[in-house]
Amino acid sequence: MFRLSQRPISYCRYGFIASLLPGLIACTTTMPAQPVQATADSGQMEQVLTEYRSSQVEVMLLRQQFLWHFPDANQHLAQFAHHIQVDGTVPVRLQEFVITYHKPRRLTPAYSGSPASAGNASAMTADFVDEVQINRNGEFLVREAISPVFTGGQSYRRLEAAKLKVGNDAYVLTVANGFLHKPMWLAIFGTDGHAVYRIGLPHGTWQFTEHADGISMVDTSGSGRRLVIRPELR
């Protein structure tokens, strides 16, 4: 799915210690990654993995051998200096940002056992999408839908957010999912509300790490991505 156009870079080769990502006990290799694109005949999973990246973002593939541990299912962003959870009932403040997670109830009529009732249940299921909204200092910035592919229909589905500081610029990182084995939604927004990066990840078991110039994400296989965010052109 990825086309690798340059030679891999080993951080150990250049003298960097394996603690570039917390929990590493082996050397890390990075490779430039081409954007993931879904074709017209792609299945659902390929569509989930479709990626958007702005011109500010450089993405490299990560490959490592071992991790010490993975964060709790409800605390993917616990390693970030400024992070919050939003349960969908009230807005939550993240320094100058206010995050709101609209999580509509999805009701399915009871199934009585007959084929007719099964058809009605399917037709009457409420297919409302979740939505994240971001305000900054009272100014509306973001209103974006999150597909049920990522959140499912469970009432305990969750949204997490973290503030990123890259140089003089601030960004909001958001992740949402319902189950660890289901796909996860990830998006990064700038202070004016523009989308910097967005991707659907194939499952919810990731270790996210904050860096001075972006983030990294690694799964249980030791594979992942390193995102470097360049200063926004003004």
From TrEMBL:
The keyword Signal applies. Keywords: Signal. Residues 1-33 form the signal peptide. This is Uncharacterized protein. It comes from Undibacterium hunanense.
